Amino acid sequence: MFVSNTHPSYLQPLDRIDAATLGADAHAKVARFLAQRDANAVTPLHALPALASELGVGSIHIKDEGFRLGLGSFKALGGAYAVMCLVLEEASKRLQRTLDVADLQSPEVRAIAATMTVTCATDGNHGRSVAQGAQLVGARAAILVHAGVSEGRVAAIARFGADMICVPGNYDDSVREAARLASERGWIVVSDTSWPGYERIPGLVMQGYTAMVGEALQQLPAAPTHVFVQAGVGGVAAAVAGHLALVMGERRPRFVVVEPARAACVHATAQAGHLVRVAHGEPTVMAMLECYEPSPIAWRVLSRVAEGFMTVDEADAIAVMNRLARPAGDDPTIVAGESGGVGLAGLIRAVASPDAKEQLGLDATSRVLVINTEGATDPARYTELVGLRPDQVLAAA
User: Fold this and answer.
1) What is the pTM of this model?
2) Which residues does the UniProt record annotate as the domain Tryptophan synthase beta chain-like PALP (predicted)?
3) Which CATH architecture fits 2-73+202-395?
4) Given the DSSP bridges, would you call strands 140-146 and 226-230 parallel, antiparallel or unpaired?
5) Active-site residues: which are they?
6) Helix (H) or strand (E) holding 177
7) Residue 131 CB contacts under 8 Å (≥ 6 apart), including other chains
8) 3-class state of residue 346 by DSSP
9) What are phi and psi of 88, to 5 degrees?
């Protein structure tokens, strides 16, 4: 369930490129881009004092990305940001002058964007962000979804004008098909996972995620001692862990990566000491985390800065959804999707395990940060698992 990081590169400095991608200067650039977006607002950070008391830790704070840019997940920060950067780079090259985010709506830049098609594979949330980014700048988007993506999530992407392409198989199959089609048709792949020879654009996606880390550090009453973040291919975990390591240095918190037991590719990689592709088995309810092969750049970061890796079961994720919807004491009501509360589920499992609790130093002085990475991005599925519609949960808050 929990394994410590024993990789030879653990506690070594980040690779130079990763440090540039995830550091303070990169975060400042992301913030500048965000300031130009409609509906931009800092997402809430909530304290969970009742749950902290139950678990025997000093405090728990949860950063709620269910309100991010109207898309309902942290993914709104990555894909759209990468699309905006790519359009500006292409326009700067063609127009032979340096352009910035304020130029994106100029007629000449939009005319260039209209000649560009961006594509990606998605479980739902990343594709929505890429599609929205394309719509914002006037580019085209072709989004690939696999058989496990719900109709509700497909419709949520399509409303941004994207061409939807259905692919047999799982997420990793759709990633490979997106790369093939892009090569054949001259599209630009905006993926949140990397592969050999393809790292810069996933790096931009991860760079976008640093926005929520910077916000959280400003909102917290004291620096966290522990951070639990969920992983699919590992991009968000690496972005959070990498940024914390770069801006906090020796004061950085202990960082734990949490995955579904049915799709624990980062956990398996940590155990093996090298990149591992795990077998595709029974689907997990944690649909946004159902990935079977880590992103190499994410692993490059996590191998250096993650304290440990752990898995949670299906029931753990569902229990957290329900706990946040029906909180105890003075804890706030929070709508968390199937993958949203997985970091919190990891914390709960860790304190219940004497070995993990001791290894991580979790005690009454611990200040824990977790991230609700998505709200009810599939309202029908949320209602099925929680027994209440998202609006009913929010109305009771």
Assistant:
1) 0.95
2) 39-373
3) 3-Layer(aba) Sandwich (3.40)
4) unpaired
5) 75, 123
6) helix 171-185
7) 141, 143, 157, 158, 160, 161, 162
8) helix
9) -65, -40
Beta bridge partners, 76, equal: none
d(CA 367, CA 361): 11
Q: Which token pair is 146? A: 């696999």
Two structure tokens written together for 274:
């090298």
Our measurement of the distance from residue 391's CA atom to the centroid of its chain's CA atoms, rounded to an integer in Å, reads: 24
Amino acid identity, position 389 = R
Q: Give the burial class of 86: count Cβ atoms within 10 A of its Cβ; 0-12 exposed, 13-18 middle, 19 or more buried.
A: buried
| Cα 210 to Cα 102, 162, 244, distances in angstroms | 21, 26, 9
CA 129, 132, 137, 139 dihedral sign is positive
Q: Give exposure, 206-219, as e/b (b: 16+ Cβ within 10 Å).
A: bbbbbbbbbbbbee
Closest CA relative to residue 130, chosen from 184, 200, 201: 201
Strands (E), 271-358: 308-312
Edge-to-edge strand list for the sheet holding 188-189:
163-167, 140-146, 117-122, 188-189
State residue 274 phi and psi, 5-degree precision: -150, 165
**What pLDDT was estimated at residue 64?**
98
Helix (H, G, I), strand (E, B) or coil at 314: helix
Non-local CB neighbours of 298 within 8 Å, separated by 6+ positions = 193, 194, 206, 231, 233, 234, 235, 237, 238, 266
Distance CA 270, CA 106 (A): 47
**Candidate from 60-64, 69-73, 229-233 with smallest mean pLDDT:** 69-73
Q: How far apart are CA 205 and CA 183, in angstroms?
A: 20
3-state secondary structure of 389: coil
Please report the pLDDT score of residue 157 as a whole number: 94
Structure token digits, residue 382 = 């949320």
Per residue in 308-339, pLDDT tens?
999 999 999 999 999 999 999 999 999 999 99
Tokens at 299, concatenated: 């692993």
Q: Where in the chain is the domain with CATH 3.40.50.1100?
A: 2-73+202-395, 79-191
Strands (E), 149-286: 163-167, 188-189, 226-230, 254-260
